[in-house]
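User: Design a sequence. Structure:
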């Protein structure tokens, strides 16, 4: 077993090095099976590694009132086993064959994957086809995963310092859209659900025509297509998944909120804005603004608030790009007894500068380099490429090639675009001011 681990580390390192040097262009082929499953293949023989992934276009936004948390719950439930995989054996099969695996859920999609030495490609396809075709969904599995998810909620949210701030932001920015519920949802909704509701949720969303199967790495495309047909072809498609975006009314005056977290000793002062969804050009502009404000020691907020004035221990600015909308968040942890008003003043001064003046050419050149570095790092492993390809198809109007177009979009964004986006979306009358404070949480 120790030898296998050493070999796996060598394979992973080799894959990382080879891909980092060539991540500017990703070749792929794609097609649909008769049951509606979209398949994407990327071939790379530089290292004997293969990533097998399935992205289901279902997340917390597809849930209904009173039954939140279903998508995240299924992230766990679909590891319970299948007609041909006994309970508790899924991950053991992966590790026994020298692989790694995981899954994650967002507001918009659920992503499962395995990474294997390439001679175990068929094992990965078998595992994911079993998950899709006939998973075991019964009271025993629901009860087991109910406890697992409750423990995850305690560790990642309820008992974790600052663990709930993104949930509070979402709750305040969205009045009607399901994004207001967060990803993990309410455990009382899971506890109240009947077994038939879980089965129905699976039948509705975890079907081939609502999924993308992406294989990236050391593969023979012809043999891989034959294996895919064998394992996934027999799975019946389901009814078309129909989703209607819920439109939010514009925010026209500041939202002020306070939240208490017993796990923290230092307040977190935040501003948040509702911005366009991830498949827009402006979402990339907002990502660039994040880098200007808080990436690295030379960023505007860090240099001003941490280095010079020393009124902040840390600063942050980031764009959470979701399918229907985005959430843009700026914040700081106070230092030297700095007041929330002082922190807000500092943050707003830098935002106003972005809205008024063009950033310098030097800052712009540095920003372009940061975007390219981010791109290379995100696609430096086969699983990163697999996820990026599936993301392009799922969220960019079925444009799988968005991966190869992304850098060009960033390079086309001008200093004027940055100024104009800051003026349009970071309006003081369109924001949330959140005071995330030490103390016992209070129900709202």
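Assistant: Done.
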């Amino acid at each position: 077993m120790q030898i296998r681990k050493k070999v796996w580390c060598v394979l992973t390192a080799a894959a990382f090095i080879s891909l980092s040097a060539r991540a500017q262009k990703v070749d792929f082929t794609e097609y649909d099976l008769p049951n509606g499953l979209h398949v994407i293949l990327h071939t790379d023989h530089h290292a004997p590694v293969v990533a097998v992934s399935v992205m289901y276009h279902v997340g917390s936004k597809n849930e209904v009132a009173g039954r939140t948390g279903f998508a995240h719950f299924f992230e766990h439930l679909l590891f319970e086993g299948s007609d041909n995989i006994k309970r508790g054996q899924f991950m053991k099969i992966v590790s026994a064959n020298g692989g790694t695996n995981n899954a994650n859920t967002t507001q918009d999609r659920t992503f499962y994957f395995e990474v294997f030495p390439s001679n175990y490609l068929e094992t990965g396809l078998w595992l994911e086809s079993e998950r899709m075709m006939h998973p075991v969904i019964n009271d025993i599995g629901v009860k087991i995963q109910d406890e697992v998810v409750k423990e995850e909620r305690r560790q990642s949210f309820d008992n974790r310092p600052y663990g709930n701030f993104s949930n509070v932001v979402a709750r305040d920015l969205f009045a009607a859209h399901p994004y207001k519920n967060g990803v993990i949802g309410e455990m009382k909704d899971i506890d109240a659900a009947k077994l038939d509701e879980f089965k129905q949720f699976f039948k509705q969303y975890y079907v081939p025509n609502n999924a993308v199967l992406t294989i990236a790495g050391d593969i023979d495309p012809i043999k891989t297509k034959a294996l895919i047909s064998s394992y996934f072809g027999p799975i019946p498609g389901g009814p078309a998944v129909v989703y209607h975006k819920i439109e939010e009314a514009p925010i026209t005056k500041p939202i002020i909120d306070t939240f208490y977290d017993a796990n923290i000793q230092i307040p977190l002062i935040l501003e948040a804005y509702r911005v366009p969804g991830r498949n827009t050009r402006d979402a990339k502009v907002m990502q660039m603004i994040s880098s200007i404000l808080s990436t690295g020691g030379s960023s505007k907020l860090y240099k001003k608030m941490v280095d010079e004035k020393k009124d902040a221990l840390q600063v942050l600015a980031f764009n959470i790009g979701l399918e229907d909308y985005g959430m843009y968040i700026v914040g700081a942890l106070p230092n030297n007894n700095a007041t929330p008003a002082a922190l807000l003043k500092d943050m707003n001064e830098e935002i106003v500068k972005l809205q008024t003046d063009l950033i310098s050419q030097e800052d712009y050149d540095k920003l372009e380099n940061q975007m390219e570095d981010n791109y290379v790092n995100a696609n430096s492993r086969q699983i990163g490429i697999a996820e990026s390809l599936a993301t392009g198809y799922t969220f960019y109007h079925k444009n799988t090639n968005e991966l190869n177009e992304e850098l060009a979009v960033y390079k086309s964004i001008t200093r004027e675009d940055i100024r104009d986006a800051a003026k349009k979306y970071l309006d003081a009358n369109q924001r949330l001011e959140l005071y995330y404070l030490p103390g016992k949480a209070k129900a709202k």
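The domain at 255-438 is CATH 3.30.830.10 (Cytochrome Bc1 Complex; Chain A, domain 1). Residues 139-158 form the longest helix (20 residues).
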